[in-house]
Structure formats: C-alpha cells, structure tokens
Amino acid sequence: MEVESSSSSSTESRGQTEDTLMWSRSRSQSPLQPGRRNKRRICLWATFLVMIILGLLFLILGLTVFKVKHPVMIVNSVAVRDLDFSLDIARVRVVFNVTLDVHISIKNPNMVGFKYTNSTAFLRYRGNDVGQVPINAGRIGARHSRSFNITLSLMGDRLLANSTFYSDVISGTVTFQNYIRVAGKVRILFFSIHVVSYTTCDLDIHPAYRNLSDPKCHYKTKL
Ligand SMILES: *[C@@H]1O[C@H](CO)[C@@H](O)[C@H](O)[C@H]1NC(C)=O
Ligand SMILES: *[C@@H]1O[C@H](CO)[C@@H](O)[C@H](O)[C@H]1NC(C)=O
Ligand SMILES: *[C@@H]1O[C@H](CO)[C@@H](O)[C@H](O)[C@H]1NC(C)=O
Ligand SMILES: *[C@@H]1O[C@H](CO)[C@@H](O)[C@H](O)[C@H]1NC(C)=O
Ligand SMILES: *[C@@H]1O[C@H](CO)[C@@H](O)[C@H](O)[C@H]1NC(C)=O
C-alpha cells in the first residue's frame, strides 16, 4: 500500500513539473495564443458574473431575511365579564371568581405570512399562574391584522386560603397580570425565521365595583 501511494505521488509530481514546463514555455511565446487569451477572457467574465450574482444575493437577503419584523400585539381592551366573591372573615378565606374578556389584535408587518404555533394566554397573581386559556395555531396574512377575544377565568380555589390574596381583596384592589406570548415563523425564500411577540398587562381589579382600572401594558418582541 505504502509503496503504491508513494509511486502515485511521484507520478503526480512529475505531471506537475511537466505542467509548469509547459506553462513557462507558453509564457515565453509572446504574444499569447488566441485560445489561451479566450480562456483568460472567459475566466474574467465568469469571475465577474459570480461577483454580480453574489452581490444580488446579498442585496436580496438584506431586503428580505434581515428585514423581517416581529408581529405587533396590541391589547385593545380588558373588561370584567363576571365577578363574584364572598369573604369568610372567621376563617380568613375568600371565594373569588372572575372572568375577563381580553380583546387583542396581532399585526403582521411582514411582506409574507406569519404562521404561529399553539400558544397560551395566562392570568397571573403575584407571579403565579392562576388561569390560562389556549390560543390555537393559525396564520396571519402579509400586512394583515387578526383580532382575538380571549376569555380568562380565575381558578378561584387556588387562592382560597391565601392570606396575601385575602388582604388584597380587603384593601379594595387586587392586581393581576395577563401574559400572552405568540410565537411562530415567517418564511422567506428558503429561510424560516422565528419571530415572537409578547405582552404583559397589569390589571388592577376593584372587586367591590366589579371593574378595573386602565390596564398598563408592556409590549416586547425579540428575534
Ligand atoms: C365560584 O365558582 C364555583 C365553581 O364554578 C362555584 O361553586 C362558587 O359558588 C363560585 N363562587 C362565587 C362566590 O360565586
Ligand atoms: C394545537 O392545538 C390543537 C387543538 O387544541 C391540537 O389539535 C393540535 O394537535 C395542537 N398542535 C400542536 C402542534 O401541538
Ligand atoms: C371581539 O369582541 C369585540 C367587542 O366585544 C368585537 O367587536 C369583535 O368583533 C370580536 N372579535 C372576534 C374575533 O370575535
Ligand atoms: C399567596 O400567594 C402568593 C403569590 O401567589 C405566594 O407568594 C404566597 O406564598 C401565598 N401564600 C400562601 C399562604 O399560600
Ligand atoms: C369603578 O366603578 C366605580 C363605581 O361605579 C367608579 O366610581 C369608578 O370610577 C370605576 N373605576 C374605574 C377604573 O372605572
């Protein structure tokens, strides 16, 4: 094996020296032969063409893939649909049921469709999930908006014996948060780009009046 390989390499090197010999011979013959000159011209044109194609490719990428924008989620309104509570002062317990109607819209600012996966809207109390509702996967067309009416309910029994919750209800204002995250993909050329949009709103609910203050929402996006 070793012998064979060494012999082949020697023939290779011999071929190389022949090549270089031929090359130097042709160089010494000036002016250049027309065939060789054509080859050189073709080579130049090919290089030029490749550069143009690369330039166009980068331009297209710059105008499309790197121009991908995140969908924009907006909370249009939050309203109390139902609110019932009863205080059990003797046992420091509160039975509290609330159902919120959350109206959101998601705008896809891209020139292509946005496909989102199954998502969830959460209702949170001091960082803990106390209610959730699914948002089924779907698609939003290019430069289109879609609105969703989400019904968030508090799973009341979770906070039944919570003293913090109890004192919040007594104080007249209970602060909840809704957290909605919608993630998906935007497809451009052969690229599938992950985009996500999420929002959290602080909801100050006044149980005695069955209403809430204007929600304070924070919107975030990331690539
Ligand atoms: C809250 O809802 C539960 C179950 O849906 C019900 O049993 C309970 O009576 C409700 N509490 C109030 C205060 O309406
Ligand atoms: C999304 O949710 C629907 C309905 O709940 C379900 O049928 C489907 O399998 C889910 N898709 C994924 C990818 O989990
Ligand atoms: C959501 O509710 C609002 C007002 O309650 C209504 O105008 C809108 O059409 C509803 N949207 C959907 C998608 O059901
Ligand atoms: C009440 O809820 C808060 C927030 O969810 C939690 O930090 C606290 O530990 C709970 N207290 C009790 C007694 O369960
Ligand atoms: C809630 O309702 C009460 C009584 O109707 C009212 O005085 C209060 O301004 C309302 N609060 C908000 C934030 O709408």
TrEMBL record:
Q: Where is the Late embryogenesis abundant protein LEA-2 subgroup domain?
A: 103-194
Q: Which domain of life is it from?
A: Eukaryota
Transmembrane ranges, per UniProt, are 42-66
Where do the segments described as Disordered lie?
1-35
Q: Which Gene3D superfamilies match?
A: 2.60.40.1820
Which residues fall in a compositionally biased region of kind Polar residues?
A: 23-32
**InterPro entries for the chain:** Lea14-like_2, LEA_2
Residues spanning the signal sequence: none
Low complexity compositional bias, start-end: 1-13
What are the UniProt keywords, alphabetically? Answer: Membrane, Transmembrane, Transmembrane helix
Q: What is this protein called?
A: Late embryogenesis abundant protein LEA-2 subgroup domain-containing protein
